[in-house]
Design a protein that fits this description.
Elements (H helix, E strand, L loop, with lengths): L2 H15 L6 H16 L1 H16 L6 E12 L3 E2 L9 E2 L3 E13 L7 E7 L4 E6 L5 E8 L3 E6 L15 E3 L4 H25 L1
Antiparallel strand pairs: 1-4, 2-3, 4-7, 5-6, 5-8, 8-9
Helix pairs in contact: 1-2, 2-3
Length: about 200
């Protein structure tokens, strides 16, 4: 909701219930009222649902990128011949372009709307929105470029996600981190060999 709206919720709650004995339903009433006024009816309901899940349930939040596939398009094919008799089987020929698919999963029971950044091989990207309700969500694309990565919650707004490691998947990992790890490994091997050489 942002710091400004959250401050408004807490201030309104304090102003209404100071020197009294509020309970959880009283907080939810103020939360829903202020959130709907500041963010609109739909977002206000989402915020209230989020707080309810966090306070009254033991549900965990865990969204994951399951897979990325890029399949080359194929021309129509089937059983046919020149005379119209269906006894010759001809396989389809590959065409330019790809049918791409990104599969996402909701592994936890907590339901939150999430954003998904999908990046293509030419560097372009799309930011998709998912309400997070289904256990499985698929995004399909048809075009001349492959998908190389997908990242759930790219701005890391959802701090309570249980496992951030499964929030992204890339088909072409960056080489810089691998080179850095290789350099560290070589450094430690060199130190070990120098120590052994010194002791001998």
């Amino acid at each position: 909701v942002g710091e400004e709206v959250m401050d408004s919720i807490i201030k309104s709650y304090f102003a209404k219930w100071k020197f009294r004995h509020p309970q959880a339903p009283d907080f939810f009433a103020v939360l829903e009222n202020v959130a709907k006024k500041e963010l609109g009816a739909e977002m206000g309901t989402l915020v209230t649902d989020f707080f309810y899940q966090c306070i009254y349930t033991t549900d965990v939040c865990d969204y994951a990128v399951g897979s990325i596939t890029n399949q080359q398009k194929m021309s129509p094919h089937g059983l046919f011949d020149g005379a119209g008799v269906a006894d010759v089987h001809e396989y389809g020929k590959y065409e330019n372009g790809y049918l791409s698919e990104v599969v996402l999963y909701r592994k936890g029971d907590m339901i939150l709307p999430v954003e998904v950044a999908i990046t293509f091989e030419d560097g372009s990207s799309i930011l998709e929105k998912w309400d997070g309700r289904d256990r499985r969500k698929t995004f399909n694309y048809s075009g001349n470029k492959k998908i190389i990565s997908a990242h759930i919650d790219p701005e890391q707004k959802i701090w309570i996600d249980l496992d951030l490691n499964n929030n992204s998947l890339t088909l072409e990992p960056a080489k810089a981190p691998l080179l850095k790890m290789a350099a560290k490994a070589i450094f430690w091997i060199q130190n070990a060999l120098q120590t052994v050489g010194f002791l001998i």
